[in-house]
């Protein structure tokens, strides 16, 4: 069977929820479409499938175009017309954290991370040493590359590329 999102032929389809609408809906798509790490090129066929009459699939197509960070996806997203109710469904998607550690593991408020590099703390006059555990981190809402935590009694901003989530 063909995937209704990317049109890949003869691939097993998996049931995928499309949360946020008045009624929870599911669509059956291929594993590659369900994986947020799939390369943008996989979704080139979305230019035609985004016009489907299946509202749940249309919502999934719109959300996929929003998360792809390439010019052609932004162009398609601007072209896509959705009725008001469907657009509300698209916009009501549960927010996944964009905060990821150096290994790509999602970070959440309250997690403990370990520094993977010595960091000079500007304005505080000390160096946060590699291997230091930072407990109960906070996520900086408007910047997924930053978290906050206490090191040596001081609240500091830390770049997520220099931390690893502790199991």
UniProtKB/TrEMBL annotation:
Q: What's a Pfam family in this record? A: YjdM
Q: Which SUPFAM superfamilies match?
A: Prokaryotic SH3-related domain
Name the encoding gene, please: phnA
Domain Protein YjdM C-terminal: residue ranges: 99-165
**Record-given protein name:** PhnA protein
Native species of this protein? Sulfitobacter pacificus
